[in-house]
Amino acid sequence: MAAEEESKEQALKKLEYLSLVSKVCSELETHVGVGDKVVAEFITELGRKCHSVDEFDAKLKENGAEMPDYFVRTLLTIIHAILPPSPESEKKDGGDSKFSGLTIADGRDRVKQLEREIEMEAEERRKRDGEMEDDRNRYDRGRDRDRDRGRGRDRDREDRK
């Protein structure tokens, strides 16, 4: 019975892996225009061995894959969600801590990246808030007109009496 459970667990892990490769493949197709399964598997294995976005980005560049920072971050997040980094590489990086993310240095590039993200989010929020304000103004103007029309009719009826 233990062998059967182990077999089911292996099948589940293989299914998760194939699902991950499929997701990476579709992300590549969407962002880069190449949806090759072999490339997706290669990127998945690279990401599995990396602990940081910078490390993953460097490995991708070593292999000739120049991608935008946001996309590299997205890919690594997807990969680590299903396949956490291997423990062997954790020991090499000194990742004994539960909070190994805290050991990542914030350089000027990271600060600029965070500032750009904040600016983009603020711009999106301003656009969204502006659209909502426009909708409210249109609604209020229409309601005011309807209210004004009703008043005029009531007055006309009172004058006729």
Automatic annotation (TrEMBL):
Lineage of origin: Eukaryota, Viridiplantae, Streptophyta, Embryophyta, Tracheophyta
Keyword Hydrolase: yes
This protein's UniProt keywords: ATP-binding, Helicase, Hydrolase, Nucleotide-binding
Record InterPro entries: DHX8_GH2-like (IPR049588)
Protein's UniProt name: RNA helicase
Top-level taxonomic group: Eukaryota
Enzyme Commission number(s): 3.6.4.13
ATP-binding is among the record's keywords: yes
Location of the region described as Disordered in the Swiss-Prot/TrEMBL record: 84-161
GO molecular function: hydrolase activity; RNA helicase activity
Compositional bias segments (type: Basic and acidic residues): 106-161
